[in-house]
Amino acid sequence: MDPENKPKGPSPHYSLYQREVFKRGGTTGELPHFSVHPEELAETTKAKLNDRSYFYANSNAGLGWTDRANREAFYRWRIVPRTCVDTNVRDLTTTLFGHRIPAPILFAPIGINKLYSPLGELVPARIAGELGLPYCLSTASSQSIEDVARVNDEAASVRNESNSVHQYDGPNGGNAKSPRFFQLYMGHDDEVTLSLLNRAWNSGFDVMMLTTDTWQLGWRPTDINIANYTFYYPGTPGNEMGLSDPVFMRKYGEDLKRDSGKWIDHSVWHGKAHTWEKIRWLNKEWKRISNGRPFVIKGIQNAADALKALEVGCDGVVVTNHAGRQVDGAVASLDALPEVVEAVGDKMTILFDSGIRTGPDAFKALALGAHAVMVGRLWVWGMSHEGDAGCRHVMKSLLADLDITMTVAGYPSIHHDVWRNKDALRFNPSGTPPSTGDHAKL
After folding, report:
1. Phi, psi at residue 133, to the nearest 5°?
2. Is 322 a known active-site residue?
3. Which sequence spans correspond to the domains of the chain?
4. Which residues bind glyoxylate (predicted)?
5. Is 353 annotated among the ligand-binding residues?
6. Is 206 part of any known ligand binding site?
7. Active-site choice (13, 99, 266, 322)
């Protein structure tokens, strides 16, 4: 872990973050203020927040069996370490929709971040900009599209000015700002939808990601127990995206004054499903607005739907079960990933979401064919503890974990040695991970 004896490579030496933590503890006695062990972090987050805030991002559908299935699927796939491999230089870089990024990890979209920090989505947007990782903004954001873009750009500019070694390219080359994706919950007012698409494009969000598994919130008993629909409570955040949208306010602003749930009930979780024909329309409109930039479907769990997404012109899919929050007893996302890769893996970009907690988790999803993984609850837990500092600590820890896993397991390059390398894994059909404490219910 000698920082003076690290050969330069295409990626930052994320592993040195572990040394940095050790060094601070040994020289100044400064220790991290919270654990980044995922199970312990979940527990301390629960103690940190009130129930409404905690369960907004952590409740699951039904008995929580889908969430548990996600974690058990990671347990069944085991990494096969190699030895005497030169891993002194690691390459974690990948190219995603024309963006060359330093590691195959994205900030997944989670709404109403003001429940976790007063600055809300500005926190993860800033940290994503610092790290050069893609940030995906939710339609249920508690900050406007424009404010999030500004903060993300500011952080990316500071990163680029301070780091002349590791520069990452955008779709048009050069020293680019951090890539930004916009996650859309599509309502049934096309004028509002088009307003959101235009605002996103004008603010530098150049990949559109439509979530298709959450027109209607799943049955979540832990939310039922405390009537946890934050938009109906006076003074709570969640309407900022609607309040900042000129079309929505022109058409429904007066309604919103009388009904605080008007934005979310009308434009986000409205309970009226769309069909593939509507997806085809939305894709066409986004391509028109963005001059052909990518359109992605989030919510794919089988090969048939992945093939249908390809047929209607989508550029990518996110293999996800919404982290176990929609259909209880559903297939684990990691179990669905191989069939999706086999069906469309040479024709579409495949992202993976649902259950990523560690570097080895990311390694396994990449080895099974995902181009990159999305992380959500981890960064929410971090920002719940210490805002920017907590979010940064959790994400730098995850990057270090992935970097160190590649080092000690003998896989120097994501692209050449890990991605779609089933020889790097071995499937164990029996056994389940041990469960302790409330994290089993998350």
Report:
1. -95, 150
2. yes
3. 3-441
4. 56, 185, 220, 322, 325
5. yes
6. no
7. 322
